[in-house]
Write a structure and sequence with these properties.
Its EC number is 2.7.13.3. By secondary structure, this protein is an alpha+beta fold. Helices cover 43% and strands 22% of the residues. It starts with 5 loop residues before the first helix and ends with a strand. The relative contact order is 0.07.
Length: 378
């Protein structure tokens, strides 16, 4: 009786672009349309009277019979594989994702199942791309939120830092000014001198902070005009060490670099001095008494490299990624004076001149800062 309806099936199925196949209760393929042939790469003759498992990947064979028998028993129209991914197997052995709709029907006393098969490769690829895009956007958003939170934390630290850095010297100036008025006798000149020295020192400190802020403004606006001249490196090193000696703590000493008398550069002399001074001053500031700061200088045919090595407090690993960020202060350095601007300015200047700065550090053991600058302007 089913065979008598074959012409009707062929007429209807060939007009449909989706794959159609019909199986009996033994899961034997009875009929397929052209779309099924094209989809799986088999001809009608190759599929006729073949088990349905021919079109199912081998790793899905286990349990398929149970699912089919359960469906066959209840004879209800439904989508196959709800909640899990389904795949078909082509003649060449390749697998592809499918969506399958099952429709039971009777012809006379015999029951059959018609499967409507859709190749969803393009849909799945689109979905996968969409999910990947969503994941990437979500990751970017998460990173942006974390970066914003980190930036807000840095801003909060900066405001607290600036408040402290200005308030402390201003308090010292105010106190010394008030005390000066109490020392009116000639014999108290030494006390007056002490407070005048304090005021002068605090004013210089505040002036340096303001100069740092002005340097940042100039760097950002591109108003820095570098002056390139040829100079002896020993002149710069001598100047840096001479000024640094006045900052040394009890028992601290600076090891002078060897074999630099014949080294010359064609660079911005003041910028090189500024950068080296910043590294040496930091080494002094963040190192305890009775320690040594070592300066090592090497020059090859292209670059001059400066190493400033200390045995100080070091930089916590979690803070190292931010150490060149403007206004950033490492957690273990918050009680020391400073604005967190120096290293940022130094890095920007060096990069403007074609150089760079790197470092290595272990908390509690010290730091080594390495700055490299071209021997001559390119």
């Amino acid at each position: 009786m089913f065979q008598n309806s074959q012409d009707v099936f062929q007429l209807l199925s060939e007009a449909i672009s989706e794959g159609i196949l019909i199986v009996d209760e033994t899961q034997t393929i009875i009929a397929v349309n052209t779309a099924t042939e094209q989809m799986f790469g088999f001809s009608k003759d190759e599929l006729n009277k073949q088990p349905l498992l021919t079109l199912i990947p081998s790793n899905f064979h286990k349990g398929h019979g149970h699912h089919f028998n359960t469906f066959y028993k209840h004879s209800e129209k439904r989508t196959m594989g709800k909640g899990r991914e389904l795949y078909g197997t082509r003649k060449d052995g390749s697998n592809f994702p499918v969506e399958v709709g099952l429709n039971p029907f009777n012809v006379g006393e015999k029951k059959y199942v018609m499967a409507l098969v859709i190749d969803i490769t393009e849909r799945k690829n689109y979905t996968d791309r969409l999910e990947k895009t969503v994941d990437e956007r979500t990751k970017q958003l998460r990173e942006a939120l974390e970066a914003e939170k980190e930036l807000n934390d840095l801003k909060t630290k900066f405001l607290s830092l600036v408040s402290h850095e200005f308030k402390t010297p201003l308090t010292g100036i105010l106190t010394s000014t008030m005390l000066l008025s109490k020392y009116k006798l000639e014999a108290q000149q030494d006390k007056r001198d002490k407070h005048i020295e304090t005021i002068t020192s605090k004013v210089h400190y505040l002036n340096n902070i303001l100069n740092d802020f002005l340097s940042i403004e100039k760097l950002e606006s591109g108003k820095i005009n570098y002056k390139f001249i040829q100079f002896n490196l020993s002149k710069v090193v001598n100047e840096v060490i001479y000024n640094a000696n006045m900052l040394l703590k009890e028992g601290q000493k600076i090891l002078y670099p060897e074999n630099i008398d014949d080294i010359t550069l064609i660079q911005d002399e003041k910028t090189v001095e500024l950068a080296l001074s910043n590294l040496v001053h930091n080494a002094i500031k963040y190192s305890p008494e009775q320690t040594t700061i070592e300066i090592i200088v090497n020059q090859d045919t292209k670059n001059t490299t400066f190493k400033v090595i200390d045995n100080g407090i070091g930089i916590p690993e979690k803070d190292q990624k931010n150490i060149f960020n403007r206004y950033f202060r490492a957690e273990n350095a918050l009680l020391d004076q400073g604005t967190g601007i120096g290293l940022n300015i130094t890095k920007t200047h060096l990069e403007n001149l074609g150089g760079n700065i790197t470092f290595s550090s272990i908390e509690g053991q010290g730091s080594t800062f390495i700055m490299t600058i071209p021997n001559t302007v390119k």
